[in-house]
Specification:
It is a single chain. This protein has 15 helices and no strands. By secondary structure, it is mostly helical. The chain has a single domain (2-338), classed as Hydantoin permease (Orthogonal Bundle), CATH 1.10.4160. Helix 1 (2-18) crosses helix 10, helix 4 (40-65) crosses helix 5 (70-78) and helix 13 (259-289) packs across helix 14 (296-310).
């Protein structure tokens, strides 16, 4: 029972790290899947398989290597010299992703709560700083609380959609996008999210160590991500193409179900953004601590300030510009992860 509970914690952290600003708001699902029409469901199935396979492999490699941060994993994959440069690039990418997360939080405050965008950014930064002072256990705990509730409210939106007139559009929706762009999409999406998630999954894999627990966590987490992707795709497809006008399309759909469900779902979207932001900044500061002789609190403040400055560009422009670019850069990382054969069997041990 203890090992199953630990696997569930890993799964929820895996889901919570991937289900961030773009996913929870609906923008990522729109960009990578829904805009390809009826192909979306098959593309989501492909992405789910990649999450399960490579998520498990990443954590098992981290446990095998006893990696302190994602730089140790990158040096294993690319070699000492190139791995160091890849880690430098990852620092830049993570800063960009965190800026998107922070901008997404600001958009929630401005679009749905009538609170100024800048105020939303500052509130999110303060909460993030407070939680990060508690370390990895706080990240595992908050994901264990938030992710199950997110599943519940996603199910509410799906049921609301199934009772509406456009419930079957995900099977018939047409698209003018090219087949090449469609089939590149799940690989770009998985590559980007997995390469970003290594900031958290590598320390988790190294800390847990038990191969059985890690594999089970990867299966549960990967399938959970796939279910939420499909639910988001089904919901968004029923409102295409008009839903594309919103920065936070899932929030617009939640508004249709009544004020209480709307505000509860908006809060959950914020929490999903928040959990990813916290997890990514945690991994980023671990990496920075290996290079800079500053306290973790000082590094967290510096990273948050950089994200605040970048967040002035706005959520929609940042996501639509940066995410596809980061996905292309992450394909090389995913290819090396997939072909790596240096993982050795390890006797199981009780999880800590």
């Amino acid at each position: 029972m203890r090992s199953w509970l630990r696997s569930m914690q890993i799964a929820f952290t895996f889901i919570g790290t991937v289900v961030g600003a773009g996913f929870a708001t609906g923008r990522e699902v729109m960009q990578f899947f829904t805009r390809f029409g009826h192909w979306g469901a098959l593309l989501i199935a492909t992405a789910t398989l990649l999450f399960v396979w490579l998520g498990a492999k990443m954590m098992l490699l981290a446990a095998e290597l006893k990696a302190k941060s994602y730089e140790d994993l990158n040096k294993h994959l690319f070699g000492e010299r190139i791995g160091t440069w890849v880690s430098h690039l990852m620092l830049v990418l993570l800063l960009g992703v965190n800026a998107v997360m922070l901008a997404g939080a600001g958009s929630i405050f401005s679009e749905h709560l009538n609170i100024a965008y800048q105020t939303g950014l500052l509130i999110t930064m303060a909460a993030c700083f407070a939680l990060l002072r508690r370390g990895m256990n706080a990240i595992l705990a908050i994901n264990t609380l938030v992710v199950p509730v997110m599943f519940l409210f996603t199910a509410v939106l799906v049921l609301h959609t199934l009772n509406g007139p456009g419930s079957g559009r995900w099977l018939t929706l047409t698209s003018e996008q090219s087949p090449f762009a469609a089939w590149m999409s799940p690989f770009l999406y998985a590559a980007f999210n997995l390469s970003m998630a290594q900031a958290v999954l590598v320390p988790v894999g190294s800390a847990i160590g038990n191969p059985t627990v890690l594999r089970r966590g990867a299966w549960l987490g990967g399938i959970g991500i796939g279910v939420m992707l499909l639910a988001g795709h089904l919901t968004l497809s029923s409102r295409m193409p008009g839903i594309q006008q919103f920065d936070i399309p899932m929030g617009g759909i939640a508004r249709e179900t009544g004020p209480w469900v709307h505000y509860a779902f908006i809060f959950l979207i914020f929490m999903e953004i928040f959990t990813t932001l916290v997890a990514d900044i945690y991994g980023l500061t671990l990496q920075l601590q290996e290079r800079l002789q500053f306290s973790r609190s000082a590094l967290v403040l510096a990273v948050l300030f950089i994200c605040f400055v970048a967040g002035q560009f706005g959520f929609g422009p940042l996501l639509s510009t940066l995410y596809p670019l980061f996905g292309m850069l992450s394909l090389g990382w995913m290819f090396l992860m997939g072909r790596d054969r240096k993982l050795r069997p390890r006797p199981p041990s009780l999880p800590s």
